[in-house]
Each structure stands twice: as C-alpha cells, then as structure tokens.
Design goal:
Distance between the termini of chain A: 69 Å
Strand content of chain A: 25-35%
Largest interface: A-B, 76 and 77 residues
Oligomer: homotrimer
Helix content of chain A: 10-25%
CATH topology of the largest domain in chain A: UDP N-Acetylglucosamine Acyltransferase, domain 1
Number of domains of chain A: 3
Radius of gyration of chain A: 27 Å
Number of helices of chain A: 5
CATH architecture of the largest domain in chain A: 3 Solenoid
Number of strands of chain A: 40
Shape of chain A: flat
C-alpha cells in the first residue's frame, strides 16, 4: 500500500509541510525508519530522534514541527492521527464474505451475506452474525449469541449462550465470554453450585484481549459498556459493570458485582474486591488492591515499589515491629510528661 | 419451565407460607422480579427490598419471613435452597447422547452410550468417557484420559494424557489440565527441561474455571481433591495438592509442590510460594503473598489497602525512611537515659 | 522402556558405582521408588530418604554417594543428569510424520515431510513448518508463520501472522503468540486503536506455558531470545524483549516496551511497568512490583509477607498513621532541644 502525503493530509485533516506527491508505504519508528516510511512524534522523549530520522514524513504537532528535517503532517493529536494513517497503510488481512465449508452453522442461525465465518467454527441455534462480521477459525458461538455489525473475533474465541457483542467490537484469541460465574452456596462444609442464568452484554467499540475471561451474570447480566478496552488475561466476575471508555491493563481481576465507572484507567495486576463501586474518571496504579468503594475521581494506589532485597528485608522487619516503635515513643512521651499527642493502639 | 410453590416446598423440604398452586417460571433479584419470578434473601443488606419486591415468592429464613409481603418458602439456608430451585427453573442446555459426526474418537477410546461428545472434539486412544458425560465442542482429550460419570466439559477444554476427572466435575471453557509443569535443571547458565511424567488427578464435584491451568506432576501426580472450586485464570503448579472443598478465587497462583488443606477459602490474586504447606480451614484475603507454611486454621493477610495517590506516596516515603525514624527514637532514648527498650537494627 | 545402568553411565558420562547390568524402567521419588525405578538426589533436604529408598539406582553427587545403599550414578549436576535420563525412560509420545486428514493446510504453506500436523489444525498461506516439528491438534498458524526445526506445539496453540519460533521451541496448550498489543490513542474521552503491525520473534529452545499470551509489536517486533522459559498465564506486552535464558514464573505480567536482561529469574505474580530496562542476572522475588529500571545484577523485592489477619490489621493501621508517629517524634525532639536530626515531611 502506497499513499501520497497529499492524500493523507486531505483525508485526515492535517496541514502538510512538504511535497504532496511524496509517498509513504509503511510505518516505522523514528530511529529505524527508511525513505518509504511514515513515522510520528507523540512522546517528547523521542524528540531528539527527529534530527536524524530517515523517515519520508513525520506526524507531529506544531510545536515540534519547527526543527523537523522531513516532510511533516501537522496534527493536533499526532498519536491518534498516526493510528488512523497506520490503519490505511497496514489494513487488517481481508476475510472473504461467506461461511468456510468446514464451519458448522446451526440451521436457525442467521449469518449476514457479507460476514465471514472461519474454518472449523461452530455457530449455535438462533445465533445472529451481522453484516461484515469476521469470525476467525475455531471460534464457538453458542445458541442465541448476537454479534452486531463489523464485530471481529480473532482465533478460537468462545462466546457462550445468549451473549451480545456490540458493533465493531474486537475480541482477541482465546477469550471466553459468558462462562459460568463463580457462585456457590456454602452448606455444611461443601458448596452448592448456584446456576448462572444471566448473560453478558458487551457494547459497541469494545476490545477484549487474548485469553481474557468475562463471566455471565448470576441472575442479571454482566455489562461491558461501549468503548471499553480490556487487555489480555483479565478476569471480569459475574454481574460486574465496566463503564464506557474505561481501559484496564493486563492481569487485573474484578470480583463479582463490582461497578467501575466511565473513563477510568486501571493499571495491570490490579485486584478489585466484590460488591464495590468505583466512580467515573478514576485512575488506579498497577498492582493496587482496591478493597473498598471509591466515591470520586482521582488517582489511587497501593503499589509498593521494590528495593534491593537486603534493604527490603530490613524495611519489612521494621514494618513488622512498628508496634514496638510506637510503644517506645509512648514511653518517651510519658517520661517527658508530654502525653497530649498520645494515641492508643486500637 | 413453570413449577408450583407446593411442588418446590415438597421437593426441597421448605415450609410454604402462601398459595401452593401459585407458580414461578424463572429467578430474579428482589429489585427486578416480576409476578412470575422466584427470588431469595440471604444477604441482610438486601432486606429493605422485601417490602417492595414484585416477586411471586421469596426463599428466606424464618427471621426474615415476618415482614415479607409475598408467598414465602422458608429455608434454613436460603441461598443453598435458592441454588437448587434455580437449577430446576433454569436447567443446563440439554446435550443429546451420542458422538457428533465431526468429532474424532480413537478406536480404543470408550464412550458411554449416554455420553455426549461435541462437534470437532478429539478423543485419544484408550480414553474413557463415562455415563452421561457432556464433552463440549472443540475439546481435546489426549490418550488415557478418564472422565467419571456426569462430568461436563464446556468448550475447548484441553485434558492431557493420563489425567483423571471425578464424577460430576465441571470444567469451564479454555481450561488446560495436565500441561507440562515448569521444571528445568540449571546447567551452566542454561536450562535442561525435566520431563514431567506425573499426571493430574481431579476428584468428584470439582469445578475448574475458564482458562485456568493445572500442571501435571513432575514425577508423581498433581491432586485436586473432591469438591474443590477453582475460579478463572488460576495457575496450579506441578505436584500441588488442593484439599477437599477448598475454594480459590480468580487470578491466584499456587507454586509447585505446595499443599493446601481442606475447606480453605483463598481470595483472588493470591500467590503461594512453592514447597509449603497450608493447614485445613485457612482463609487468605485477596492479594496476599503466602511465602511460608501456615500451621493452623485462621485468617491470614498481607493485603495493603489503597489510598489516594498523593497520600500513598507520602506513606511509602515514610515506610522507606523508617530506619531513620528508629534512629531518631534511639537518640531520644539515649538522651533520656532510657535505653532499656532499645532495639538494634538486625 | 528399560535401560541398563551401564548404558546410562556411558551415555551421560556418569561414574557408575554398582552393577552395569542392572536395569531401570521409570523414574520415581526416593520415597516412593520401587525396584525398577531410577531416582535422584539434588535437594539436600531429601538426603535422609536415601537410607530407606527402594530405588534400583540413584543419581547424585560424590558427596552424597557415601551413604547410599543403592546402585549409584555419580554426576556433577545430578538434577540435570536426572532430567536427561528421564527423557530417555519417558519419551514424549510419538507423532507420526504427516498431515492429519482433517487438518487444513493452505496451498502455499510448506510442511516438511518429517513434520506432524495434528487433527483439525489450520495452517495459513506461506507458513513454514520445518523438519520434525510437531503441531498438535486444534492449532492455528496464520499466514507467514515460520516454525524452526523440532518445534513442538501442544494443543490449540494460536500463532498469529508473521510470528517466528526458533528451533526446538515448545509451546504449551492454549498459548497465544502474536495477538494485538494493547495500543490506543486517547482522543476526546475515547480511544483510537493503533494498528499493531510488528510481529513476535521467538528464539531457539524457548518454552512458553499454557494460556500464556505474547503480544505482537506495535511497529517493530516483540522479541523472546533463545533459551527463555515462560510459565503459564504470563502476559508479555508489545515490544517487550526478554533476554536469553531468563526464566519467568506464572501469573507475571510485563508491560509494553520493557526490556528484561539475560539469565534473569523472575518469580510468580510479578508486575513490570512499561518502558523500563532490567539488567542481566537480576532476580525478582515473587509478587514484586517492578516500577522502575534496574541497572545492575542482584536480588530485588517488594514482597510483603502475610500475618494472621488481626495482627495484619494493626500493622496496616500503624502504617497508615506513620505520619502521626513522625510528628510525635518531632515534638519530642523539639522538647529535647534536639533538632539536628529532624526531617520535614516532603
């Protein structure tokens, strides 16, 4: 795919400083670009690389454009504009409309003529696959699943009965949507399984990462609102609701019945307790334990940064004898007759 | 499915307060029930919803029944009784006995006539699938796998060679049972793979979550005892033993050769070191690091609850200069001639 | 498989103390060995079991050999020698050369005659499967994938377009290599997907665990160097580089663009921030948060060991009021006129 800078400028509303006839064929980093490459500058720390890049053109903002030796596409949000141009230069592999002869489609399923159903996929009764969907090889859609238009399922995605995915939603390989939630009633030292009769409703423009799991609701549905982005190996428990445009990084788990607000940014390896509520516009740093509700927007953390192990062991030892230190301070205060600030250990 | 309250009362040993001819068709939450719904009250925090629920009937205990405006099914353990009734109202989708024509079954495998083997599943040599098992589509059972009666494998479950699953055990989609354990012998800066020749033995009435992985033993078997419940995305290392009726929440990892006792409750995102032993009836709160053995029943934790990030940074800074604070206290004690409580930093 | 001790001694360069005609058939632990078993002693804590083992022969080092009542194979590195002998006694199940009739192989793919392609696997256009590879059932190799000689893919491994795996690399069941990285450009409260146009290059002699996910690069490739060992349920973000012979335990996540050095040992449940660099020969203890770069070899930790929950709650309460304790010490210092060591809270 080769595109002229003039065409890109018109199509993406950029101001072009340079030759409109110059062409780019692929994207590259500033450091490794060649004369057919388009690159971009969004993170200021890469700015020194502008001087030496061999890229044909760079997408950047007005402030950075001054010293740039290449053709320039000016954009207010260079990263977003780069993303759109990259999608033109590197289109997703095409998937021909039609059902692969080895796919197994139930008689009552409805597959739009423009949709693609890949090799060895299994589509259950009454499932609906809308216009221009791409269902990759080895996917399983159980009965009553509904895919909106332009949904893309990568490879061996499992979508359990009754789950709905909104338009343009993308599911990466190995994800499981609508498995049974983790619900058991304790009874005399054993567990009685609680049937999980809800489903999962996923909005439009959601992305779900590789091997991520989203459980079906116990009674009502688990809900992933529009525009949510979930990384790989995330666990979403039953009856969770994730608000619109929230992004969650890998290895995070959300326990059952917890609600996360809109436009939140959740780091990797975060754990959420169940039955809590997180406000809109909350940021949680990676590796934090969210054990109670959060009522307002802001940044929250319980991340303990590492140290060299010998230093760390001393820190932990002091942490564990902190009661002794408080006691020593109390005795000093007593001796000084200065008891006014004293606090009892609860 | 529609059932009369009289039939439910007889079948599940409840006292009925209300009309035995009244019928329910499905389950619902108290808040969202309609006139054909059965609901339940187990968590006291939902008690205020009793007054306004439109459910046909509610399962609850005698104490809560007083103010309930609906028909009532009295149960000592309302949640467990609800679970059993829900299974009647919402039966698992039926799976017709027989082997799907696209499944590949080795000549020496034995499939009970009442068992179901789904589309595109692969069953290896000498595998045994007992009465009334349901093997979902895209499952792979390698050679010498043995499924007890009434086992249910959801979609694309992988069971490696020689693994045994006890009666009524349920495995959710994407789980892998019997992959190679993580065993390598260090040798001059590289790793020599140690063959993993054990298998996995899973007891009866176990449930294994979506995309959870249980490794085969290095020499002897990894063992999951009866009644264990494992949530999604859990890692069980080689030669681990999980005791009967223990429940483990999502994203938890158990390192090799660790033994967990019976009836334990393990939170999500917990990490267990290898080669340790955990007593029966232990509770571990979510996000804890279990780095040494636990000899007795009790509740254990290393969960650090989060704070607003600015506050958190100050807490971490103080934690990291805790040695300085100890030193300041030591000097004050010295000045006060009060050295009796002094402790040296180890 | 039955082998004489004499043959094993010659083949693996061990000194034999005992009968060269004696034969072993399988491996076993010292505690549970029978008269046809070969066992080994590497961890000194099992040394007391030597006296009572019924093994036919034990692999151990010269120091431990003194009191051993069985035939002995002397090795400098008994665990590595045991590993090699175990591979002889317990060979991997054979896979006949050839393509299973139900596999779907694109016309332009090249499959070596000595390679095995399992049931229901799907091989894309221009993919290359080299000599003696074993591709298990239900694997999907997209277009332009390249497997070096002797690669083994277990069951339902997904390898996305353009990914390369080096010679002898092993991928366990359910792993996904080359899914899209987690890249989105923020724009007015929503996210624009950034096409992930790099691939993944995996070196020789790598092992990748069950359900582990390795994302393709955003522009350039994600790289796993030779000899790396990745356990189950690990997440490797886009453009990460993992150095040769590094081993990473289960449930660990590495955020995008982070570089990990050679010969590192990373515990389970560790989280790495993105865009950081870890030196060679670094050890990270399990459950640590690696939030910044590490410049030199050493052991690093942020693991907080657990306590009984009541004790833990008091420790956390003291941690959270640590500012108050500092203030109390400051007042004591003021009263004592001893202000020289005082520190302001930043």
């Amino acid at each position: 795919m080769s595109v002229s800078l003039g065409e890109l400028a018109v199509r993406f509303g950029c101001e072009l400083r340079g030759d409109p006839e110059a062409r780019v064929e692929h994207v590259a980093t500033l450091a490794n670009a060649d004369r057919t490459a388009l690159s971009f500058l969004a993170n200021p720390r890469y700015r020194p690389q502008l001087a030496t890049t061999r890229a044909a053109a760079v997408v950047l903002n007005a402030e950075a454009a001054a010293g740039c030796p290449t053709h320039v596409l000016l954009a207010e949000n260079p990263y977003a504009t780069y993303a759109r141009i990259a999608a033109v230069l590197h289109p997703s592999p095409a998937a021909a409309p039609g059902v692969h002869p080895t796919a197994l489609v139930a008689a009552s399923a409805r597959i739009a003529p423009s949709a693609h159903v890949g090799a060895l996929s299994v589509i259950g009764e009454r499932a609906v696959v809308a216009e221009r969907c791409v269902v990759g090889p080895h996917c399983v859609l159980e009965e009553d699943v509904r895919l909106g238009p332009d949904v893309r399922l990568a490879v061996r995605v499992t979508v359990h009965r009754g789950v709905e995915l909104g338009a343009r939603t993308v599911v990466q390989s190995g994800a499981v949507i609508g498995g049974d939630g983790f619900g058991y009633a304790p009874e005399r030292g054993t567990w009685v399984k609680v049937p999980q009769v809800g489903a999962v409703r996923v909005g439009a423009d959601v992305e779900i990462g590789c091997n991520t799991t989203i459980d079906r609701g116990a009674i009502e549905d688990t809900v992933i609102e529009e525009g949510v982005k979930l990384d790989n190996l995330i666990q979403i428990g039953h009856n969770v609701r994730v608000g619109a445009h929230t992004a969650i990084a890998a290895c995070t788990g959300v326990s059952g019945s917890t609600t996360i607000g809109k436009r939140c940014m959740i780091g990797g390896h975060v754990g959420f307790a169940g039955h809590i509520s997180i406000a809109d516009d909350v940021v949680i740093t990676g590796f934090s334990a969210v054990s109670r509700s959060i009522a307002g927007a802001g940044v929250y953390s319980s991340t303990l940064p590492f140290e060299e192990a010998h230093t760390w062991r001393r820190l932990v030892a002091r942490f564990k004898r902190s009661g002794l230190l408080e006691e020593r301070v109390r005795r000093l205060e007593g001796a000084a007759g200065n008891k006014s600030r004293q606090e009892e250990d609860p």
